[in-house]
Amino acid sequence: MKYPIAIEPGSDAQAWGVVVPDLPGCFSTADSGIDEAIWR
Question: Closest by alpha carbon to 38, among 13, 1, 3?
């Protein structure tokens, strides 16, 4: 199955975030970049 994701960009003060809107509570974060946040 494939689900759309929402990517929340990070900065020096905030981590990158990835949220799956169709699956409440399903999210991922990473300090080092978007690639790590998506594949966590």
Answer: 3
Chain centre distance of CA 40 = 9
Measured CA to CA, the distance from residue 30 to residue 22 in angstroms comes to 21
Residues 8-32 pLDDT 10s: 888 888 888 999 999 999 998 888 8
Whole-prediction pTM: 0.68
With beta carbons less than 8 A apart as the criterion, state whether 37 and 29 touch: yes
Q: What is the DSSP annotation of the chain?
A: -----EEE---SSS-EEEE-TTSTT-EEEESS-HHHHHH-
